[in-house]
Q: What sequence folds into this?
């Protein structure tokens, strides 16, 4: 049985204030073309369908049109998707029940994640589970009588503690999946899970919302009971285990993703062999505009032709000139209309530029519009009055002391 795995579409996202809606439309056309080429039983979208909880109308219209065409061209295809941490589960789940009857399954309630969708492809069967991004406080247990009357929630595996971290929520989800996978009704068939989370040792990218610490990291071992786990959240396509993969984002959404091969994952599950072997291959996506980083002296870009092949790319250029180039973006943009980011200097020029900016910012901060010197202690007092209604003498004294110490060190 063939599954097509993608995720982190981030429809409606912009790159350095440049709309990517045309790029995303082309990417969805590539997804449709792959559905046409392959005999897929299901399309798995592992979260972050949209880039923000209230997506722009054009992004919603784009995805709606894609779903309509996918169902029209492939009536037997199941489209199975979950919300990620960028999505609003409530908004994404609009009309989910009636869509489910049409083969479009949108799983937004974690409590429903432990009931499988049975895929049937010419007599071959697979039990598919959909686990949305787990927000703090989800996966509550059954109410039980409280010690002093009323009701309290019994969070299984956590006592009276509310499950707030991804690590704790994943442990509870794994406990429930253990029971679900033991159901005799799905015995003898392969199983798959779609989830949106950060696994340990996963390689992150700059366009993701970064979690600090390890409380949001999920152990891959928790979901080792599935034949295949389709993950979303990390934007770099990567293998976690032989049976657990991130499809990555189908487009590069930050310049530190420049040069990464993007695409969808074609997953082939052998439903008849012992252990249900799985093979995974990347289906590359050719973007409408590549995301590219280039480095070199200004004249190489302004007068040379060496970078002509990148004239239509989304560009970040780092100039290596020892002297600061004035107004380089306007000078280079006629040749590189999609120049979105420009950095100057790798050595002395960078230090000089930084020092000049710091000096200018310091001067602007310490002068009034008339050019008079400002008193930082007086500004602090004004801020305290605005924030608290009065000035705390101890805080004011501490601020003046710290200011003096900084001046001495400078």
A:
């Amino acid at each position: 049985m063939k599954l097509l795995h993608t995720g982190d579409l981030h429809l409606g996202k912009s790159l350095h204030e440049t709309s990517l809606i045309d790029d995303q439309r082309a990417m969805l056309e590539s997804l449709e073309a792959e559905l046409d080429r392959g005999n897929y039983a299901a399309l798995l979208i592992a979260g972050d369908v949209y880039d923000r909880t209230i997506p722009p109308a054009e992004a919603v219209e784009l995805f709606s049109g894609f779903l309509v065409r996918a169902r029209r061209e492939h009536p037997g295809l199941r489209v199975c998707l979950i919300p990620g941490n960028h999505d609003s589960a409530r908004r994404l789940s609009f009309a989910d029940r009636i869509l489910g009857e049409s083969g479009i399954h949108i799983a937004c309630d974690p409590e429903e994640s432990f009931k499988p969708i049975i895929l049937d492809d010419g007599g071959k069967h697979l039990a598919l589970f959909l686990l949305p991004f787990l927000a703090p406080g989800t996966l509550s247990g059954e109410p039980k009588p409280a010690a002093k009357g009323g009701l309290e929630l019994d969070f299984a595996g956590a006592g009276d503690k509310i499950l707030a971290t991804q690590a704790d929520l994943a442990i509870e989800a794994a406990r429930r999946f253990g029971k679900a996978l033991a159901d005799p009704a799905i015995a003898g068939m392969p199983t798959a899970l779609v989830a949106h989370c950060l696994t340990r040792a996963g390689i992150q990218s700059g366009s993701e919302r970064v979690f600090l610490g390890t409380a949001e990291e999920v152990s891959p071992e928790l979901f080792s009971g599935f034949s295949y786990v389709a993950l979303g959240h990390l934007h770099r396509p990567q293998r976690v285990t032989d049976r657990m993969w991130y499809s990555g984002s189908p487009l590069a959404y930050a310049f530190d993703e420049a040069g990464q091969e993007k695409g969808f994952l074609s997953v082939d599950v052998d439903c008849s062999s012992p252990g249900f072997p799985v093979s995974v291959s990347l289906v590359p996506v050719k973007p409408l505009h590549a995301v590219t980083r280039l480095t070199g002296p200004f004249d190489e870009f302004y007068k040379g032709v060496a970078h002509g092949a990148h004239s239509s790319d989304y560009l970040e250029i780092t100039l290596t000139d020892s002297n600061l180039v004035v107004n380089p973006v306007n000078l280079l943009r006629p040749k590189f209309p999609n120049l979105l980011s420009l950095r100057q200097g790798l050595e002395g020029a960078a230090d000089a530029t930084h020092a000049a900016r710091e000096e200018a910012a310091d001067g602007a901060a310490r002068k009034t519009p008339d050019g008079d010197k400002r008193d930082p202690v007086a500004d602090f007092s004004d801020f305290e009055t605005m924030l608290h209604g009065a000035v705390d003498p101890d805080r004011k004294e501490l601020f003046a002391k710290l200011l003096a110490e900084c001046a001495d060190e400078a």
